[in-house]
Amino acid sequence: MIGGFNPPEAAETEQEDHALATDLTRGLDQPLDTPRPSVQSSSPSQSLAGSADVGSYVNSSTFFKGLIKSSRSVGIDGKFEGEIQSEADVVIGRDAEVRGNIKAETVIISGKVVGNVTCSMLEIQPTARVVGNLTPGQMLVAIGAVVRGQVLMGGEESEEIPEPLPEQSGNSSSRRRNQPAA
């Protein structure tokens, strides 16, 4: 207030405003003593909300183009074009669209990603659409997910990738039955 003068009713209102500002999970029409509703969502903002290490977040109404480089977790719910580098987690929300490469410790994809992904752990949710080359240490792909690209998983050995085996015409088991016994 002006000049340091705070009438008693202003102090109460200020405390209520502070309590409401720190807990926006309840509806605005609910009194402050109403218990908070439990909220479940696949958006990065809520899956990363329990973590104090959220470094960057692009919300659903935002388009961001550039480089995100963070030592903490990154959440994308909007549209992103560029490159994401994180020493922690990267979570791509269900309605997110990412065009660019992702390099992180753990990557969880629920939305659309067009680009290469390099990580220690990759989780591709049922609503995910991924187009690009994937290089995870470990990977989990849910039923319903779409993945188009090459997956190079495992150790650092530089083994040659074998050519696909040629398709055999006819049924090989029927040829064995017609051959004379030796």
Helix-and-strand structural type: mainly beta
pLDDT averaged over residues = 74
State the separation between the terminal residues, measured CA to CA: 104 Å
State the helicity in percent bands. 10-25%
Q: What letter string, H or E per element, gives the SSE order?
A: HHEEEEEEEEEEEH
Content of β-strand = 35-45%
Weakly predicted, low-confidence segments: 1-6, 16-43
Shape: globular
Report the C-alpha radius of gyration, rounded. 26 Å
Count every helix, treating DSSP H or I runs of 4 or more residues as helices: 3
Work out the number of β strands.
11
- State the major sheet: 11 strands, parallel
The gist of it:
The protein is mainly β. Helices cover 14% and strands 37% of the residues. It has a domain of 103 residues.
Characterise the protein shown here.
Strands 1, 2, 3, 4, 5, 6, 7, 8, 9, 10 and 11 form an eleven-stranded parallel beta sheet that branches. The N terminus is likely disordered. This protein is 14% helix and 37% strand. It has a domain of 103 residues. The N and C termini lie far apart (104 Å). With 182 residues, it is mainly beta. The protein has three helices and eleven strands, in the order ααβββββββββββα.
In terms of topology, how is this protein built?
Elements: H1 8-22, H2 44-47, E1 54-58, E2 63-70, E3 73-76, E4 79-86, E5 89-92, E6 97-109, E7 112-114, E8 117-124, E9 129-131, E10 134-141, E11 146-148, H3 172-178
Parallel strand pairs: 1-3, 2-4, 3-5, 4-6, 5-6, 6-7, 6-8, 7-9, 8-10, 9-11
